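Late entry, evening session. Most of the bench is empty. Finally got around to the prediction I had been postponing all week. Sequence below, unchanged from the version circulated by S.P.
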Amino acid sequence: MRAFNRKPATYADLMSVPETMVAELIAGELIASPRPALEHSQASSILAMDLGSPFDRGGPGAGQAAGGSVTSQSPLGSRRAGP
């Protein structure tokens, strides 16, 4: 394997990457890849919702409206805030 003596990438290099690409500077190396397609973004969002924590969907511990006040449940018991 041959070693190359490249100079580190700069902020100017990063800014020269086309808008259709996602780019990062990591340890002086410019990493660029195509932006994800719309279908990929939608699938990623759906997976995040399906696999997310139960707290994200009103599961145990999430605040829930009860008669105008907020009830919160936790392993330590329930709390009620409000009038």
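Two things to note before I forget:
The chain has two helices and five strands.
Residues 10 and 28 are 7 Å apart (CA to CA).
Will write this up properly tomorrow.
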